[in-house]
Amino acid sequence: MLRRKEMFDADARDYHEYKYTELVGQLDCHSFASRQERVLRLLPDRVDTAVDIGCGSGAYLPLLARRSQFLVAMDFSREMLKQSRASYGEVCDQFVEGDAMRLPLREQCMDLLICIGVLEYLPDPLACLREVHRVLRPGATAVLSVPNSQSLWRLFEQCVGPITRRCRRLVGKGHEGLGMDAARRTLFSVRSIGTLAEQAGLHVRDVEYYNYRLPCLGGLSTTMSLGVTRRLERLRKGRWMRWVSGGLVIQCRRPGTSPEEAPLTRNCIEILACPADKSPLTQSRAGMTCSTCGREYAVDDGLPAMA
After folding, report:
1. CATH at 183
2. Looking at the DSSP assignment, which residues form a beta bridge with residue 236?
3. Residue 295 covered by a domain
4. Is residue 236 part of a domain?
5. Which structural domain, as residue segments, surrounds residue 226?
6. CB proximity list for 239: less than 8 A, separation 6 or greater
7. pTM listed for this prediction
8. Which residues contact 66 (CB under 8 A, 6 or more apart)?
9. What does the chain look like in DSSP terms, one character per residue?
10. Any residues with CB less than 8 A from the CB of 31 and at least 6 apart, and which?
11. pLDDT tens-digit readout, 36-81
């Protein structure tokens, strides 16, 4: 886990530019824009509290800010948090360094949670989903995204990708792009991610597909592959989509009904909790202190270190 933290810290400076602001003809940028559109479709209109788990460079924060009264951005990479705060500090109420498998949040404190492109990097995705269930209020919404294991393009990349990267290293070209792109990731089918969500106590309400790619086309012609992707995106429904879609966006809900007169959240001390025992925190000179175990969490550069 530490190695991956260092990898994301190293990629932080270039991540947003490489994934979101490169030329429109780049497949990765189109894929990320397509995913954003599908996430937007599945978000509720207006909520009190929202959190972006694994916020990265903060690209989803403006979308969440327009739909929430109090917004928290969380990532286990401090460098990613610094980049997101530099870009979107005016739209987000709190940036927190934390672990997705041990969320430093109180029980039933969130009305909306998104976790985009995170589960596939975790050693225990179920632990993260159980934490998602714990922090959501009854009836609240979670929107997740994961790579699709049934995609023909993903299967092709799994078989051919390691050989291609080894050949590029042999000829001295190495890996183009970000270090995280070469990291090992877990792939999920609609059934497998649905099973994990149910085990965590969440109900899957909707699934959207994105990132339509066919094997070989990307290597032969980026323009051709992008053209095929755009044509396939016009056909949103159908069982065949699972075979050409590289990614899934899933909307889940925690069962139950949220209280109608829930108090509005005004500051982070009302929702943050000790990751070790989930107890409430109190303000201290060092930053924040757990009310049960007494552990202190420092606030460095304005970022609480809750990992």
Report:
1. 3.40.50.150
2. none
3. no
4. yes
5. 2-267
6. none
7. 0.84
8. none
9. -HHHHHHHHHHHHHHHHHHHSS-TT-HHHHHHHHHHHHHHHHS-S-EEEEEEET-TT-TTHHHHHTTEEEEEEEES-HHHHHHHHHHHTTT-SEEEE-BTTB--B-TT-EEEEEEES-GGG-S-HHHHHHHHHHHEEEEEEEEEEEEBTT-HHHHHHHHHHHHHHHHHHHTT----S-GGGGS----B-HHHHHHHHHHTT-EEEEEEEEEE--TTHHHH-HHHHHHHHHHHHT----TTHHHHEEEEEEEEE-SS---TTPPPP-SGGGTBB-TTT--BEEE-SSEEEETTT--EEEEETTEEB--
10. 210, 211, 246, 247
11. 989 999 999 999 999 999 998 899 999 999 999 999 999 998 888 9
Joined tokens for residue 207: 């699934």
| Cβ atoms of 293 and 274 closer than 8 Å | yes
Q: Flag whether 60 is in a domain.
A: yes
pLDDT digits (tens, 9 = 90+) for 181-236: 556 789 999 999 999 999 999 999 999 988 876 655 555 556 666 667 767 776 66
Question: Hey, what amino acid is at 251?
Answer: Q
> Hey, what are 301's tokens?
């550069």
The rounded distance, in Å, linking the Cα atoms of 41 and 33 is 13
Torsional sign, CA 237, 239, 240, 245: positive
Q: How many domains does the chain have?
A: 1
The verdict on residue 299 lying in a domain is: no
CB 62 within 8 A of CB 91: yes
Residue 247's nearest CA partner among 196, 193, 210, 194 is 210
